[in-house]
Amino acid sequence: MNKILILFIIISLAGCASAPKRPLPSEPSSTIAHTKKSGGYYMDDGPGDNPPANLDAIPDAIPKIEPLHKYANRPYVTLGESYTPLTEISTYQAQGIASWYGKKFNGKPTSSGEPYDMYGMSAAHLTLPIPSYARVKSLTTGKSVIVRINDRGPFHSKRIIDLSYTAAYKLGIVQGGSGMVEVTAITPAEISQGRDIPATTTGIFLQLGSFSNRDNAEKLLARASTQLSKSNAALVILTKQDHYRVALGPYEDDDSAKIAAQEIESRMNLKPIRTVIE
């Protein structure tokens, strides 16, 4: 082995030392499969052998206000490129190519230190804070999901986000391996806005579900936020005596409530219950 090659190896190892925890793909981009049958994952990657029976039923990530990771948001260098992650969660929106990663990384540590779960609703991003949440919409299928950012990547040009297998499946981009998407950060203000409303709030509400467990209410709220278009009314949780009702409202008049009810029925296949709080 000549001296030049040895020097190249030493420099490469030094560069990797400053990279995030996620194991980086060793293959160059030319080794990525692009056929419809195999998908756009690495040659030794791909979907698991025994995926859950109903991936569509796996709920989206539920946005929460969490403290940022102590180390995962520091500037880093990988594959010769320097990146400076955001150190606060703020407005962010970008369009570009989304890819996904599967069994090759499943169970291995992400940049947050958490094990990667290919059947969870997570994603890797080059600079969005860890942890944070983002809404990802496929510009081809029109479907959208909410994911939790807990990893760094993708380290390939023109790609802006690396999705978990399930997130890519729900967006309809698994078979092609990648797809054009729009990524929108979910800010703390958006997370907290309108979630729990004061007991004195009045108006017409459309109840989507009622639960004794708040986590179940949060799951339905997260699902509704991805399936319903934004309107003047907000998705809220009405709390009364340890009971949690997910609702849309308040509406000032019946006509507005009826239009919203029609959208709920068509988009969610769910008939809301009209509730009036005076």
TrEMBL record:
Keywords associated with the record: Cell membrane, Cell wall biogenesis/degradation, Lipoprotein, Lyase, Membrane, Palmitate, Signal
Domain SPOR stretches: 198-277
Enzyme category, top tier: lyase
Localisation per UniProt entry: Cell membrane
EC number(s) on file: 4.2.2.-
Membrane topology: Lipid-anchor
Signal peptide positions (record): 1-19
CDD domains the UniProt entry points to: DPBB_RlpA-like
Pfam families xrefs: DPBB_1, SPOR
GO CC terms in record: plasma membrane
Top-level taxon in the UniProt lineage: Bacteria
GO biological process, one term: cell wall organization
GO MF term list: lytic endotransglycosylase activity; peptidoglycan binding
Summary of the function given for this chain in its UniProt record: Lytic transglycosylase with a strong preference for naked glycan strands that lack stem peptides.
Family per record: Belongs to the RlpA family.
Protein name from the UniProt record: Endolytic peptidoglycan transglycosylase RlpA
Gene: rlpA
